[in-house]
Amino acid sequence: MRVLLIGSGGREHALAWKIAASPLLTRLYAAPGNPGIGHEAELVRLDTADHAAVVRFCRENEIDLVVVGPEGPLVAGIADDLRAEGIRVFGPSKAAARLEGSKGFTKDLCAKYGIPTAAYGRFDDLASARAHVEKTGAPIVIKADGLAAGKGVTVAMTLDQALAALEACFDGSFGQAGAEVVVEEFLVGEEASFFCLCDGTTALPFGTAQDHKRVGDGDTGPNTGGMGAYSPASVMTPEMIDRTMREIVEPTMRGMAETGAPFSGVLFAGLMISEKGPKLIEYNTRFGDPECQVLMMRLKDDLLVLLNAAADGQLAHTSVRWRDEAALTVVMAARGYPGTPEKGSVIRGVEAAAGDGVEIFHAGTAINGGALVANGGRVLNVTATGSTVAEAQKKAYAALDRIDWPQGFCRRDIGWLAVAREQAN
Ligand code: AMP
Predict the structure, then answer these.
(1) Residue 96: half-sphere exposure toward Cβ, Cα within 13 Å
(2) What is the spatial distance between Cα 292 and Cα 284, in angstroms, rounded to a whole number?
(3) Mind listing the pLDDT tens digit for each residue in 17-40?
(4) pLDDT in tens, 323-358
(5) How far, in whole angstroms, is CA 279 from its chain's centroid?
(6) Which residues line ligand 1 (CB under 6 A)?
(7) Integer Cα distance of 262 and 89 in angstroms
């Protein structure tokens, strides 16, 4: 098979690494990729926002399957434009990607199909949003409706914070994404990420993880795209997975099919597990980054077989097997992240630090004058497996400490909750 992978982050490096291990693969291309992905795939210069150019590339290179990593191209309709030309794609249509692209769309679907989620209101003007927030009081959650690169959500513990967040949305801080605002009830519980592979009809559970959104140890400081993750998430017991499938994922699949937008690709449910059971915080329509990295380390089966089954509507006949080990990934970020990261500092010792159950996935790296340099906020994902989360954590940090990059930083406590639970048992 000849495969084109779209994207350039740590998530896509992990996907490339796993796809490259498939006996079905004859050639893997990545656009635009990164230096780490370049070890697994041929990097191609292709403007992925130019769908006609992507179609042309697929024709010229006889691509059998396009795998779309990030949400941007999906929300822009790349899967539709490829399918319209008869090119097979793993990823949802534009209409189905609204589950991620519009929080209001998802909340309305939840209301219609009885899917447990935070109570909410949708507003397109400041005055009525403000009146609602003043009436409800804090804590309360304010969300820009559209894609805002993870920055459009404010969990407001005070009324002042909530009103400031509303003003930021309506004064254009998030561009078009903030023209409509969703105001939500504050949920209490433990968060977990739950993944399914979907083919329009069937959803196949595809692993659990927990990530760490805050930049600092002890979950302090500003939100980021994610500073680390581990899998599996112990809060997602088999019973909780069953309930999530029945109460959340299956009605979503049914709802999407009934609204004429059957969902295929990765359905990533961000959940709050409360005493009463799972509640949906939000959907994403692609793998999490860095959750994908830990899932790929634990996946026993051939990823390409699974992606093919999803693309072809064959998931009902497919199963998935996982290694017994836990996996954990630590993000190394460039100083300044999540504000303005410093670019260009030289990173040494990456290849020597990998091996023996440790993979180092590249996120924001580049080659400059033959040297590996930082080229983004999140730069490397040091990922390890172990018989327990504690062992995977120890291996990941031991490898990370062998990397010579003074301008980089990381959290030192990724996996703390799982490690504390393991010690208590
Ligand atoms: P989102 O981008 O919707 O995943 O929100 C980002 C983060 O905000 C989530 O991972 C949660 O930690 C938090 N959050 C979002 N919605 C709620 C809610 N209704 N109650 C409590 N926390 C929330």
Answers:
(1) 30
(2) 13
(3) 999 999 999 999 999 999 999 999
(4) 999 999 999 999 999 999 999 999 999 999 999 999
(5) 18
(6) 118, 141, 150, 153, 155, 184-187, 191, 213, 270, 281-282
(7) 14
